[in-house]
Amino acid sequence: MIIFHEEIIKNYENLYKNKDKYDVIIYAGEKPNIKEFHAHSLILRTQSKFFKSAFIEDIEKKNGCFILHSRNSPDVFEILLRYMYYGNIDLTKLQSHEILNLLLPSDELEFQPLVKCIQETLIGENHEDFIIKNILEIIELTYQKESFDMLWNFCLQQICFKTDHLFKSTKFLTFNPSIFEIFLKRDDFYVSNEIIIWENLLKWAYDQDPIIQQDINKWNKNEFTMMERRLSRFIQLIRFYHISSEDFHSKVYPFKEILPSNLINNILAYHMVPNEKLNIDIQPQRFKDPALGYVWDKSACGSKLIIEDNGKVVFLNGMSLSRKIVIVLGLEYVHQKISIMKPLQEVNLLGGY
């Protein structure tokens, strides 16, 4: 059998370029940046389920051509239109933000192979700086979108491993509270001290609309009520029993009026009679899981084997692990650990700090 893929693709490329017998006019963008594109309904229907459904509806026609409108920018739409004719996109020639801008419209047009390819490209080390710099915007973009789960999981793991990506961002105060709630439910949402989460939660609550002053001694009844409502969904997710008695006394107890009374009483009993067995459900302490994706930090250990060429983002995409061995180094690096993992049905071992 002789297959002439290149010749067929070339014919489609020529059809795209010369627009011979086009029957669709698409206006892409928003004023004042609108561009007119010409296409063929047969190509659009064949390549995209979105367009296949669109042409079933009663579409405006003018001079024998279907008239369509796209909110996508002309640059983005042109890339996707070429993809429908050419069958390929060279993502290596695009900047990080240009690749990300393709993600949502590609999903809307149901180009699932392209959606997967875009995510794999962004997760690659060439776009690491861009991802970290824009990680909150990206995680909100991918939130509750099943087709974006690869990028969502990657960003989620990055933030869990280094919570500064969230708490030290200028965008934290406007961050989606539903996503924040997801973080707080995770054992691997690592902070060196649980009080850090409480302090940042307060900071977030103060800054919601309307803004509440931070001096609790000056609050009126209405401000107490508003703060209680803002914090209510998060209270059960804060691991108060892992906050020191000193921090609890100075940073949590002053807010006892907006916290459940049984919680306050239990925490007081926990600290005042530590040897007494109390009927309290204490959540486990948060931990930093080395099996999750993170950025190598060669300065954090004494190894000379970790160099710039080897330091890279590590991402385990749902890998099933049958064994996990933790080796503690000598006393000099007793706080460091090497995790060695053996994937199922594999002979190779994976390991690292």
Automatic annotation (TrEMBL):
What is this protein called in UniProt? BTB/POZ protein
Determine the domain of life of the protein's source: Eukaryota
Q: What residues form the membrane-spanning segments? A: none
Q: Which SMART domains match?
A: BTB
The record's listing under Pfam families reads: BTB (PF00651)
Record domain BTB: where: 22-93
Q: Which organism is it from?
A: Glomus cerebriforme
Extract the InterPro entries matched here. Answer: BTB-POZ/Galectin-3-binding, BTB/POZ_dom, SKP1/BTB/POZ_sf
